[in-house]
Specification:
The chain has 102 residues and is α+β, with helices and mostly antiparallel strands. β1 and β2 form a beta hairpin. α1 crosses α2. The radius of gyration is 22 Å and the shape is elongated.
Length: 102
């Protein structure tokens, strides 16, 4: 932006501060019916985790009841939740995927 000089005053443009969008955690929730191997496939397919990382997250879900798959902006997190839920239902598994603000 241009700076104007007028007699003894200087006008300068202020930079607008843009706030980062809120981020959301996408979580898988444990159930007693979805096979562990299916959870690993979901983590690899929809969250691009390596087999090792997917196995770690799956075990966290199994032991603690929930595990974080990733952190995303709201729209992307909502899309991931829908994709995972649809994929699980398509394969007749009750796997639950939810999102919560980070």
């Amino acid at each position: 932006m241009a700076t104007r000089h007028r007699e003894d005053s200087v006008l300068e443009a202020k930079k607008a501060k843009v706030k980062a969008p809120p981020m959301f955690k996408v979580l898988l929730l444990n159930d007693d019916y979805t096979p562990m191997d299916f959870v690993i496939v979901v983590l690899q397919k929809f969250f691009s985790h390596s087999r090792e990382k997917a196995t770690q997250i799956m075990l966290k879900v199994h032991r603690e009841g929930a595990g974080v798959c990733g952190v995303f902006p709201r729209d992307l997190a909502a899309t991931k939740v829908e994709q995972v839920t649809g994929f699980a239902r398509q394969h007749q598994h009750p796997l639950r995927c939810v999102m919560e603000e980070n």
